[in-house]
Amino acid sequence: MSLALEKLLAPAQLAGLGLRNRVIKTATFEGMCQNGMPSDGLIRHHAEIAAGGTGLTTVAYCGVSPDGLTFKDQMWMHDGVRPQLLRLAAAVHAEGGAVSAQLAHCGNFSRNKPRNIPRPRGPSRSINQYGLLSGLPLGGAMTAADIRKTIAEYAAAAAFVKDVGFDAIEIHMGHGYLLSQFISPALNKRRDEYGGSLENRMRLPLEILAAVRKAVGVDFPLLAKLNLSDGFATGLQIDEACRAAQLLERGGLNAIVMSGGVVSRTSMYLFRGTSPLAQMIPLEKNPLQRKAMQWFGAANFQELPYEELYFLDLARQMRRSVKMPLVYLGGVSSAAGMRRVMEEGFDFIAMGRALLQDQNLLQRVREQGESWVSRCNHCNQCVASMALPGGTRCVLDEPRAFVR
């Protein structure tokens, strides 16, 4: 086995957190929180990932408030979910793993009716494409009071996550959710101190980082998921993404999980491979939304060819820009790919679909060395499976998963 693979599989430190290896299960929405309550299936899902040997598993989309959810079957951090999250953390720890929570807010991309405001709010007024046929066609612009409240919500959610025994936090700054909306020049049209220059567009993410850091203390690992590119011409590009990473590094962030794409515009920029739209349409419960997906969904789910390590060229540029640990995400599907990522100077590897397909893949790598290749064929039907009973899973060995 190469030295690079040996390093990947050996124990490592992430901002003082001891991990048994450098592999992270990235946040992929599980679909296991019916009506916002984490299920036994969610606990089992992450415990099984830990049992397979992954160093750190990430619980996806932990909303910071009820107004920050994209739809109702997401959880937000409050005392009602405390017992289940205590159990989840304990289950992962019992398997020798560590667990992180991805703190998120939808901004103006939501089909979930907010509790405290008339419609979803983000950096600027906008068409809310996701809520268009759910009675929420417009997104509002956050006021100064909204911003202060949101900062406080992130801090409170972070303190809660630490209190229930999680080991790390990932602040979601990518994929077109709230903080990504503020960072993106295409989505942020504000004319105050939170819009315009990159420094202004980064103001809210940095203020939230500072508030979260104060809430959890200096020794608690904080990561952020950040776009390398939004995937369209007027969105965030790699030059500004690198400058954003430098600002986050100076702000005390411990690591960046590099990603890309905006779910409302360029969904397949993140995934690559086959579009799951055909499987998603029949599972949509709203008949108007289902019809809209049939007519217009192809525009947002345009297929992009899968190539292993498809973010590597962009990630190299970020690697040259910062000294902080970087987590490579994007098309790692073989041991040879793992070796290459480590040889390029990245500190950790995040995996999604390959770990859904085989939670024991690290044992396969130890046994097979550089000959190991994931069975994942990038069909992306695991994305559609989020809406199935039981939540997300690989359906390679389940040919009738979508038969109803």
Keyphrases for this structure?
FMN binding, alpha/beta, eight-stranded parallel barrel, OxRdtase_FMN_N, three-stranded mixed beta sheet, 404 residues
How much helical structure, as a percent, in the residues? 25-40%
Q: Find the structural class using helix and strand composition.
A: alpha/beta
**Widest sheet: strand ordering:** 3-4-6-10-11-12-13-14
Uncertain segments are: none
Question: Strand share of the residues?
Answer: 5-15%
Task: Sketch the topology as an H/E string, one letter per element.
Answer: HEEEHEEHEEEEHEHHHEHEHHHHEHEHHH
Profile the largest sheet.
8 strands, parallel, barrel
Question: What is the number of beta strands?
Answer: 14
Q: State the CATH topology.
A: TIM Barrel
CATH homology superfamily name: Aldolase class I
Our Rg estimate from Cα atoms comes to: 20 Å
Shape: globular
Instruction: Tell me which CATH architecture applies here.
Output: Alpha-Beta Barrel
Number of domains: 1
Treating each run of at least 4 consecutive H or I residues as one helix, how many helices? 16
